[in-house]
Design goal:
By secondary structure, the chain is of the alpha+beta class. 19% of the residues lie in helices and 28% in strands. The strands form 2 sheets. Strands 1, 2, 3, 4, 5, 6, 9, 10, 11 and 12 form a 10-stranded mixed beta sheet that branches. Strands 7-8 form a two-stranded antiparallel ribbon.
């Protein structure tokens, strides 16, 4: 059973730490699949006594990306927050495990993005695309991968994923833009022994929306919301530190 990790709540908005594998809004083909939006409606019914609570989408995370998601409780708050996202006034920070050793300690990726005409639903670099800028900073290097912080200054679909791929460092696990090979401890530990079938320690998108900073709609104070790195990514980091440290 999925439980909500509420990071912040007031009269205008509610923020949660979304787990990987959970949709933010209903799937157009199968609306019965659980979503953050539906779960928050039920949460407000139980805790606020509201029969038909308004939970309005402000921004989205990919289904398999974990981390901070903010939803509005009324039209005015939705409009206020949406304008901040559209104008680039929201500061976003992601944590990513990427393939290969990133040589530069930090850098900027300034590459316009457009939806691919060859593969609908994916993005690609193109001079006619929309302006897209990301900053990255290496947090930790391992023998075969890198732990990085990525700050997108624009809000394009799949921006972090495509930009990191464009410099030769796609996400360590990414079915759309890289590889989707699960990671097992037996691959790292030479004398590994396990009774029964071994389970992977990483088999989902290696991307986490760590921090959002924006203005609260009515109080005009700045909110800085953080979602601690989830257990699976934390476990992967610990294994890499133990077995893949240079």
């Amino acid at each position: 059973m999925i439980t909500l990790d509420i990071l912040y709540e007031d009269d205008n908005l509610i923020a949660v730490n979304k787990p990987s594998g959970l949709l933010v809004t209903p799937d157009r083909w199968n609306p019965s699949i659980p979503t953050i939006q539906d779960m928050l409606r039920e949460y407000l019914r139980r805790n606020g006594g509201v029969t038909h609570p308004n939970i309005r989408v402000v921004h989205r995370l990919d289904k398999d990306t974990s981390g901070v998601v903010v939803l509005a409780k009324n039209i005015k708050a939705q409009s206020h927050l949406s304008k901040q996202f559209e104008s680039g006034d929201v500061s976003k920070t992601y944590l990513a495990l990427v393939k290969g050793v990133v040589e530069k300690d930090e850098g900027m990726i300034n590459q316009p993005l457009i939806e691919s005409s060859h593969k609908p639903g994916t993005m690609t670099l193109h001079k006619k695309g929309k302006k897209s800028i990301s900053l990255y900073k290496v947090l930790e290097r391992f023998r075969t991968c890198t732990y990085a912080q990525v700050t997108p200054l624009t809000g394009r679909t799949h921006q972090v994923r495509v930009h990191m791929m464009s410099i030769g460092h796609p996400l360590l696990y990414d079915p759309l833009y890289g590889e989707a090979n699960a990671f097992f401890l037996s691959q790292l530990k030479k004398d590994y022994k396990e009774k029964g079938k071994e389970k992977p320690f990483l088999d989902r998108l290696s991307l986490h929306a760590f921090r959002l900073s924006f203005r609260e709609p009515s109080e005009e104070k700045t909110l800085v919301l953080e979602a601690q790195i989830p257990r699976d990514l934390s476990r992967a980091l610990n294994y890499f530190r133990k077995y893949l440290k240079s």
